[in-house]
Write a structure and sequence with these properties.
The structure is a single chain. The chain has 4 helices and 10 strands. By secondary structure, it is α+β, with helices and mostly antiparallel strands. Helix 1 (about 35-45) packs parallel to helix 4 (about 160-175) and helix 2 (about 65-80) packs parallel to helix 3 (about 130-145). About 40% of the residues are buried.
Length: about 190
């Protein structure tokens, strides 16, 4: 079992994440930001990995630090799961429709953190969350985990667009972290 526990405490937040990439999509999330909990739940459930995430943050200021730090801690957890990269599929992609919206994600869990984000929300907020924080969450996660991610979304409804992107990311992440049955590192360099 590749179960990872990561904790991070700062003056702004206290985050605890438990990640099991070999799970069944069991999720328990409590960030204090209900819509973000919904997105993380959709990501893990559809990705087929178990995720527990509890966060206490300075929500009296706003939700930025809490969401950013969850991205950092989740990224650290994914990086630990990847390890040397032995036996993981490494590359994966997913295309997810949600009514009029479409989310597309392509991932490389090969040690190079990078994010390409293509899509815009129609409003400044998605639920109660500033729309720009979603890109920042994925940036924090990907750079900490060493994942190159291309995330594209389109549509008319901001909730649908956001959820399609999170579901697509979860499905691609679950597939990229899946074990292939061998112990090789999928790299021409022999290591990540």
């Amino acid at each position: 079992m590749r179960v990872v526990d990561v904790k991070r405490e700062t003056k702004e937040t206290k985050i605890v994440v438990k990640l099991n990439p070999d799970g069944k999509g069991t999720v328990k999330v409590d960030s204090g930001v209900p819509f973000f909990d919904h997105m993380l739940t959709a990501m893990a459930r559809h990705g087929g990995f178990d995720l527990t995430c509890t966060a206490k943050g300075d929500l009296h200021v706003d939700c930025h630090h809490t969401i950013e730090d969850i991205g950092i801690v989740l990224g650290d957890a994914v990086k630990q799961v990847i390890g040397e990269g032995r036996g993981i599929r490494r590359f994966a992609h997913a295309v997810i429709p949600m009514d009029e919206s479409l989310g597309e994600v392509a991932l490389d869990c090969g040690g190079r953190g990078y994010l390409v984000w293509k899509g815009t929300f129609g409003n400044k907020f998605v639920s109660t969350i500033p729309a720009d924080i979603f890109e920042h969450f994925f940036y924090s996660l990907c750079t900490r985990a060493g994942i190159t991610a291309h995330i594209t979304f389109s549509g008319k409804n901001d909730h649908h667009q956001c959820e399609a992107a999170f579901k697509a990311f979860g499905i691609a992440l679950g597939q990229a972290l899946a074990l292939t049955g061998d112990k090789t590192v999928r790299s021409t360099k022999g290591k990540f």
